[in-house]
Fold these 2 entries.
Entry 1:
Amino acid sequence: MQDSVRSVDRALQVLELLAGGPMRLSDLARQAGLPVSTTHRLLVTMEQRGFVQAEPDSAMWAVGRQAFAVGAAFSSRHSFLAPAILSLRRLRDATRETANLGTILSGEVSIVAQAESREITRAIAAPGARTPVVLSAMGKAIIATWPEEAVDALVERHGFRAMTARSIRDIDSLKAELAIVRQRGFAVDDEEFVSGIRCVAAVVRDPTGEPNCAISVSGQAARLPEAKLPQVAAQVMEHAADLSRRLQLLA
């Protein structure tokens, strides 16, 4: 039984990695911390059930149709996604950058909806991709609404993962930044998760009135210089507030 549970956990881990985009077997095994043979066996099993699919021309593995069907069940239970997508498209058109909707799952921010920028070069973390909460503008926007003890519990459980030279590395720095987020109403990922990428986010209250999600704009730092952040932040906050108002009508 224990081996079966371990196999399920490993399969889900592989599926979560593929949510970020197609990957080669060797890269997938390395990121999952599994032997190539084990990873291949898991992929073949999930392929038989339609959760992943092989792309022979590129030797890549990708999420399959059945995974989309399961994900659609989440969408059907969360009626806020339809109005959120409309807001994301409007925000994308206003800023010309990729707009995202995210929520916190197991100590990470997961993108649940997105409107891609139409620019040739754009910042995209595909829906389903995850980012450590403290390195995500959306994550910081959400936890800035939490009581201090909840933030402490999050950090105690998940810690800090330094991804770039700008990553937050300690609780004091995090709390200082959250205080700024509360004061100005928006959060920034200033190349903290990926070098060269900036994000600006504001919290959104879901149909129950809880601040469980956020929207953001993400783009290349060269197109989102610090001097432009207040302008972009104002647009993000405007769309977040409008979406929050419309979602209350669904409650």
Entry 2:
Amino acid sequence: MCGRYVLIASENEVKTTFRISVLEEPLVPNYNAFPTSRMPVITNVQPDVLHLFRWGLIPHWAKDLTIGAKMINARAETLFEKPAFKFPALHQRCLVPANGYFEWYHFNGVKSPFFISCASHQLFAFAGLWSKWNSSTPPQTIYSFTIITVPPVNSIAHLHNRMPLILSPDLYDSWLSATAKPDDIVPMLTTPDMDMEFYPVSNLVNHAANNSPEVIAPL
């Protein structure tokens, strides 16, 4: 599960890391990205452009956009089985830049938030899928995305039984390839081989209105 994440890298860092030449809008630090937020993604259609898409995938066949709230994550094991994700998995993949994400540890009925990031402290990318949804009443077009999840690495398995799929930089081009087939994609849908670190944070993250450095400050 990934229900909140952080992107606080500078524009230059994002441009350099992902070889971006065009930003759809100026990049604003976000310490508490939540579902329905408009967040940066890099698509397989325009891999040199940083777009802002709505978090929570809205399938092209959806009757209304509310379904997106249930589509913030997609399980890697069933991508090619779910109607909402099969086509995007084949044709509409994206990178979702991030500096870290939050998970809630449940103990004795209490949920405590933790901030999780790569031990290297480097900017990274979640593997994602995107979609284009059109509505005639009222006329609108919404681009949206979901974050793929996998079983966790050992160091954070006690916090939650899922984690977002973090791609190693050497897989970025393959993930965004316009010619990738299922046999090319499936091997990338596995738990990443990387060190993660985590620490407890305050309940500020529980409220979407809170968006400041204090949200990721260690307790």
